[in-house]
Design brief:
3-stranded parallel sheet; elongated; two-stranded parallel ribbon; binds iron/sulfur cluster; 2 domains; Rossmann fold; Tyrosyl-Transfer RNA Synthetase; mainly alpha
Length: 328
């Protein structure tokens, strides 16, 4: 029997090439080897109460990108967190075995509290408990994570372990599957590509939009004139060539260093590489978008399949916690 992978992602709307290279491609590959459950965690998004009016649109657009990139509802369960409300019940039950001190020590809680001092809500503190509920409700065994997420997963393991030690073996302790996500730097050349910094290229951008955005990318700051030799190792356009023109990077590096190629031509090459890599994905996306009910159907089917697992787990948990009579 295949091991079960669980992963959740916030509904951030249309995905960008940083999401694609960093997470989505990994999700697609894992489908071949594991029993995968991928969830859009809409309840987690409520901790900041931003863009709630766009939540449904963000879910729809994000799922279109996931499907177009190759996530296959025949192979994986794809659903929205709140469509399986059992997760909220398990969150409450797990909160009874989670010492408050564990939660208050979580660095991301302190960081979030600093970022939104006007809204330091309980959801921010309880976030790791809800995340644990997300995973263990489906008896997730493996969670693909980047190194920065390891402390969260360790806390999920501790909560599962504590529950098991009090009430008997119930949950597998989820193991991390460390993935060396490439750091995709945004077009401004400083921060990680992301919506926060408005430095991204959407997967669904048209070829013209892609070219226009690539042309704004910051390059080697020391290369002020076309005749200046460049330093590809400090240029983000060059780092993106590794993903989109892997066969040409050596040549581009030589030409940059000898001023044989200018930044405008180099960016045009990059835009061509991105557009050619994403052409099939964009075509699939357009075809899926033309079927307005398709995403709804996928998510509804995914929620049904996820809920069947969730109900069994929750029944087991309630029985072990004494909330219902033990079956004989
Ligand atoms: Fe960067 Fe290319 Fe310009 Fe060199 S030629 S600095 S790699 S954009």
């Amino acid at each position: 029997m295949k091991q079960r992978v669980f992963s959740g992602a916030r509904p951030t709307g249309r995905q960008h090439i940083g999401n694609y290279l960093g997470a989505i491609q990994n999700y697609v590959n894992l489908q071949e080897e594991y029993d995968c459950i991928y969830c859009i965690v809409d309840v987690h998004a409520l901790t900041s109460l931003e863009e709630t009016d766009r939540l449904q649109e963000n879910i729809h657009e994000m799922m279109l990108d996931w499907l177009a990139a190759g996530l296959d509802p025949q192979k994986s369960i794809l659903f929205v967190q709140s469509h399986v409300p059992e997760v909220m019940e398990l969150h409450t039950l797990l909160s009874m075995v989670t010492p408050l001190g564990w939660l208050l020590r979580v660095p991301t809680f302190k960081e979030k509290a600093r970022m939104q001092p006007q809204n330091v809500n309980y959801g921010l503190v309880g976030y790791p408990v809800l995340m644990t509920a997300d995973i263990v409700l489906y008896k997730g065994e493996i969670v693909p994570v980047g190194e920065d997420q390891l402390p969260h997963l360790e806390l999920a393991r501790e909560i599962a372990r504590r529950f098991n030690s009090i009430f008997g073996p119930t949950f597998p302790e989820p193991q991390s599957k460390l993935t060396s996500f490439p750091l995709v730097v945004g077009l401004n050349g400083t921060q990680k590509m992301g919506k926060t910094y408005d430095n991204y290229i959407e997967l669904a951008a048209t070829p013209e939009e892609t070219l226009k955005l690539v042309m704004t990318a910051v390059t080697d700051p020391a290369r002020r004139y076309r005749s200046d030799p460049g330093h590809p190792e400090v240029c983000n356009v060059f780092s993106l060539h590794h993903f989109f023109n892997p066969d040409r990077v050596d040549g581009i590096a030589d030409e940059c260093r000898s001023a044989g190629i200018g930044c405008v031509d180099c960016k045009q090459l990059l835009a061509q590489g991105i557009n050619s890599e994403l052409a099939a994905l964009r075509e699939r996306r357009a075809a899926l978008a033309a079927r307005p009910q398709y995403v709804t159907e996928v998510l509804s089917d995914g929620a049904c399949r996820a809920q069947a697992i969730a109900r069994d787990t929750l029944a087991e948990v309630k029985e072990k916690m004494g909330l219902v009579r033990r079956s004989v």
